[in-house]
Amino acid sequence: MTDKSPLKRRVVYFSIIYLAFVLLLLGVEVITRLTLPHVSSLDLFVNTPQQVAQVANQKQNTIFEGDPLLLWRLKPNLDHAVWDFTVLSTNAQGLRTDYLVGAKGPEAIRIVCLGDSVTFGYRVPTVWPERPKDYDPESLPYPMLLEKQLRAANPGRQIEVVNMAVPGYTSHQGLAWLRRDIGKLQPDLVVASFGWNDTSMSDAPDRETIETNWRVVGARWLIDHSQAFAHATRWLRAKKQIEPPSFIKPVPRVSQYEYVNNMLGIVGLARAHGAEAIVIAAPYRDSQTNPQEAQAMDEYRAALRSVTRQNQVPFLEILELTEAAYPSNLGWFGELIHPNHMGHRLIASELLKLLKAQRRLKDLQIPEMIP
């Protein structure tokens, strides 16, 4: 008869081995942090030249950090940071709002505005780097204007308009973000607007460069939380580095088909969690500065308009913020893509009109427009 170790002894034996392994990893991590320079997860996550140009260069990474799911996000606790003529602050969650977004109260109304640099409020308010305190504090992105106006019309009510928007994001990232967080956010209304980044040309589509399956996200999480893993990843990439092909045919970051499906996915998620949904057409100033880009924007917008109509999704398309109104729409834009502070007031006003006309958020008093 073979002599078998008691279960207790085997548990102790394997526990010692496990503990030794954990202590070894901790030792490697401590030594790495003490002896080697810090490796930014943002630099490891963001790989395509187009993404690097947007969020991982020396100027941009002052407000961005790595995110295991979405590749990049806004840094938390920014305090009147000046970035690309934009003054912004973030809360401890990296959201452009002045309060923490916690569990929703039983009487609270919560609106989530999901989007890219337009919803984020690029250059709203505008500030010159040499005069960082000289800006108009009433110049606000439309989510903040919406919150301010709804609170004024409903005194005593807890109303939160959460600005879930990050420059450079596509509908692919927006859908992944909402899928991860909608359960804890419990919004009453989701407002979604994406477009220009989706149509932007890249060496590879987002579905390849921003994979969202749990294995890839788990590996990124390890890199984000461990300098040892980060250094090992950088070393392995350097060893395996190969010359890129001499010619790569650019593709949209998100195809028109994927874009429409992503936007419908956002709407479907909202409805599945008991929330209403509104889609806002992406703004674009004119068709003359960059005709090819303008054509792509028009085609994506038309496809989205058609599918929202078929699925009875409220679709807000503001004529003044499209190429059809050029050149009389110049006063609404800061440049080709982004509305200025007056453009954001227009978006907020038109959104309020839509809410009132379609009797959305029936529990609230909806004002007519931003005064």
Word description of this protein:
- It is a single chain.
- This protein is of the alpha/beta class.
- The protein has 13 helices and 11 strands.
- The chain has helices at 7-35, 41-45, 49-55, 117-120, 142-153, 171-185, 196-199, 206-209, 214-225, 227-240, 256-272, 291-310, 341-357, and strands spanning 64-67, 71-74, 81-83, 86-88, 109-115, 159-165, 189-193, 201-202, 251-252, 276-280, 315-316.
- Strands 6-5-7-10-11 form a 5-stranded parallel β-sheet, sandwiched between helices. A two-stranded antiparallel sheet has the order 1-2. Strands 3-4 form a two-stranded antiparallel ribbon.
- A hairpin with a 3-residue loop joins strand 1 and strand 2 (71-74).
- Helix 1 crosses helix 10 (227-240), helix 9 crosses helix 10 (227-240) and helix 11 packs parallel to helix 12.
- The longest helix has 29 residues, at 7-35.
- The chain is globular and about 75 Å long.
- The model has no long low-confidence stretch (mean pLDDT 93).
Summarize this structure as a short list of keywords or feature phrases.
single chain; 371 residues; alpha/beta; 5-stranded parallel sheet; two-stranded antiparallel ribbon; 11 strands; globular
